[in-house]
Design goal:
By secondary structure, this protein is of the alpha/beta class. Helices cover 43% and strands 17% of the residues. Helix 2 runs parallel beside helix 3 (83-103).
Length: 333
């Protein structure tokens, strides 16, 4: 079995490639010209140069493949030009599915996000069936993932075998960018998080997410979506777990939303002037007003999704960030 993985140089995609190799697949990775290949340097895989925005490159990359894992996406809560999110996440996804349909691909596993699910109300645990009110979507990134998931569902209705997976907040090694979730870990390790807000998230091992992709291809039902999640944690508890595995003290001060929102607005303005990416945006503050708890029970029941303890996943993330120079060691050797 040969599988094409888009986004294979990234955090989730590289782990999907590893999980496929562990299953005995031949793996072909779609890589952009000039991409950072650090996550692939030790993998016995084939590469195909291309871009999800280039339909011809996708058709070439899919030749001889039976399955496609479409992991590539622009994962950012702040971009100077929001049109880029649509170009990559929406138009790029349509390009992938169109090419897969033409190439006679047997199965496409589409990496959506919990961002495409219903927006939780305070204290609610979201499932795959929680209704989405598009008017409640916060930010251009979440809107792009919601629309892209509708594209995936459209191709499933047309007869292509499409399984949709919705990862929550993955942590682990190999977060080279790092992702927004990884940035929280790095900022914590570098003492850049003196306080926290009252929010929550569902945290999952990136390795479990990767295995979940493979299980979705093997066991998932076409047209269905599966939350690839782990443990629901308040942000205060998440930081406490980080403290346990790193030896660094967790912040004790909880900030109200109003001053944080004002700070985020000022930070965005400054970054538009300097061209740097803000660490805090108004969208992320708006999202933090929701406790982002999700249930992975469907994926556990139907796919056999593993559930690595969060502490273990965080420990592997901390070790990787320290070993690769993102953060200084926090305990004496």
């Amino acid at each position: 079995m040969r599988s094409l993985v888009t986004g294979a140089t990234g955090f989730i995609g590289s782990h999907v490639a590893r999980a496929l190799l562990d299953r005995g697949d031949d793996v072909r990775a779609l890589v952009r010209t000039g991409a950072d290949l650090r996550n692939l340097h030790d993998l016995q895989i084939e590469t195909a140069v291309g871009d999800v925005r280039d339909a011809d490159s996708l058709e070439r990359a899919m030749r001889g493949c039976q399955r496609v894992f479409h992991v590539a996406a622009l994962y950012s809560f702040w971009v100077p030009d929001p049109a880029l999110l649509d170009a990559v996440n929406v138009v790029g996804t349509r390009n992938v599915f169109t090419a897969a349909e033409r190439a006679g691909i047997e199965t496409v596993v589409y990496t959506s996000s919990v961002a495409a699910l219903g927006v939780p109300r305070r204290g609610e645990i979201v499932t795959e069936e929680t209704p989405m009110d598009p008017a409640r979507i916060v930010g251009a990134y979440k809107r792009s993932k919601y629309v892209a998931e509708q594209v995936a569902a459209e191709f499933a209705r047309r007869g292509l075998r499409v399984v949709i997976v919705n990862p929550s907040f993955p942590v682990g090694p190999g977060d080279v960018k790092p992702t927004p979730t990884g940035r929280v870990v790095v900022d914590f390790l570098n003492g850049r998080m003196p306080a926290y807000v009252d929010t929550g998230m569902n945290v999952v091992s990136v390795r479990d997410v990767a295995v979940g992709h493979v299980l979705a291809a093997e066991e998932g039902r076409s047209g269905e979506r599966y939350i690839l999640g782990g443990e629901n944690l308040a942000l205060k508890e998440f930081l406490s777990r980080l403290s346990e595995v790193s030896g660094r003290s967790a912040p004790r001060v909880r900030l109200p939303y109003a001053p944080v929102a004002a700070l985020a607005g000022a930070n965005e303005w400054l970054c538009r002037v300097t061209g740097r990416e803000p660490r805090l945006t108004r969208d992320t503050v708006r999202m933090s007003r929701h406790t982002m708890f999700y249930s992975p029970e469907k994926a556990i029941r139907e796919l056999g999704l593993p559930q690595t303890p969060v502490r273990e996943a965080l420990a592997s993330a901390v070790a990787w960030f320290v070993a690769n120079g993102y953060a200084r060691p926090t305990r004496p050797e």
